[in-house]
Request: fold
Amino acid sequence: MQFCYARLNPNGEQAMRTDTAHRKWNETWQSEDGRRAWSQADPDVLACATSVISAGGADALDLGSGVGRHALALARMGFNVDALDGSEVGIAQLRKDAESERLSVRTHHGVMTELPFADASFDYLLAFNVIYHGDPEILAATIAEISRVLRQGATLQLTMLSKRNVNYGVGEEIAPNTFVVKDASDDKVHPHFYCNAGELVALLPGFELKGLVDREQKPGHWHWHVVAEKL
Reply:
């Protein structure tokens, strides 16, 4: 996602932002093969979203929407959908595909730490393989924004990198549990945050966990799959 401005470190000095993985994803989305690899909605997302809309949920945010595999699926299900990503290429592709299917998806190019939505705007927020792209400060700011834009009783579905992941501990630790692999050919060249179950629960004050599973998305790549309710 695109985050261009600087922040201050504990010494009061300017520090570069660490949520920079959008730069690599911009490259990925420019190729047909790159887009095809991320074209199918995840079954866990479809199941959770079906439960939300069946219970009367209407307004959904796909945070870190990429090229829109989930935003499009949510629109097909009947949600009022907003989609936000830092990749201009991803947002452009999503807009094109939504228009092709005559689906209504409001697209936003923006930052996950400063969501351009009013308080209590959504019944369902999806952040699939997104918010761990940064250090603990970025993550805390993002979760605070997520909490702000969700209504009481709303559903949050997200994934986080597990410490069982093959990439945990690989590269330079630039902040607690946050690693950069400087010679990586994929987005690991940008910061990634990892956590265990206890650390993950502590990251979500104001939420009640309804589901927590450590899932191997592909060999060696373990991710926490979380469903939580906003209290």
In short: Residues 1-14 have pLDDT under 50 and may be disordered.
